[in-house]
Amino acid sequence: MSAPDAMRCFETLVTRMEGAVAIDAWLLGLGDEGALLAERLTAQLPGQRHHAKLDLNALAQGALQTTPELALSAIFSEKAPVVLVDAVLWRGETVVQAVSLLRENGVHAPIELAVLADRGGYLVPIAPTYCGGEIVAAEDTVLQLAEDGKALRFCA
Predict the structure, then answer these.
(1) pLDDT digits over 88-106, tens only?
(2) Is 30 strand, coil or helix?
(3) Shortest CA distance to 40 belongs to which of 65, 17, 68, 67?
(4) 3-state DSSP call for residue 42?
């Protein structure tokens, strides 16, 4: 496996998003790793951005929930742009499902995708709007993002 340095990917992602993401955008983290990144990105990017975690367990059961729970109603009322945030983009199925559920639940704002690393191998036509780096890994390798104090790292 050739995994990039997660902190370098994060710095690259911040640089690519600065000045490009709307100041009032919602950064919705997919799962725990995406929520961690969304929170860190919100702190690094200038402006009044908000962040929340999009609950993937609820998403898998066909329900749309965020943490904190009020975040979704704010997205509906503000019609602010949405950036889905994930650690690693691989097949794209989770992102497509998230976008579909957001649309079904009344989110009509533009939706973009930010990923720390792009693994390729998409099963659906999708590409990240913002990407920190690329990963080459064997098909059976499961990658996770770990927080090591203030540092981020990839582990298999």
Answers:
(1) 998 888 899 888 888 887 7
(2) strand
(3) 17
(4) helix
What is the pTM (predicted TM-score) of this model? 0.86
Output the six-digit token pair for 135.
């990963």
DSSP class of residue 46 equals: S
What is the phi-psi region of residue 120: left when phi exceeds 0, alpha when psi lies from -120 to 50, beta otherwise?
Answer: left
Give the integer Cα–Cα distance in Å for 6 and 101.
Answer: 29
Residue 148's identity, in one-letter code, is D
What does DSSP assign to residue 53?
E
Q: Which tokens hold the place of 151?
A: 């540092």
Coil, helix or strand at residue 86: strand
Which residue, chain included where needed, has tokens 């990039």?
A: 4
Residues 6+ apart with CB under 8 A from 146: 152, 153, 154, 155
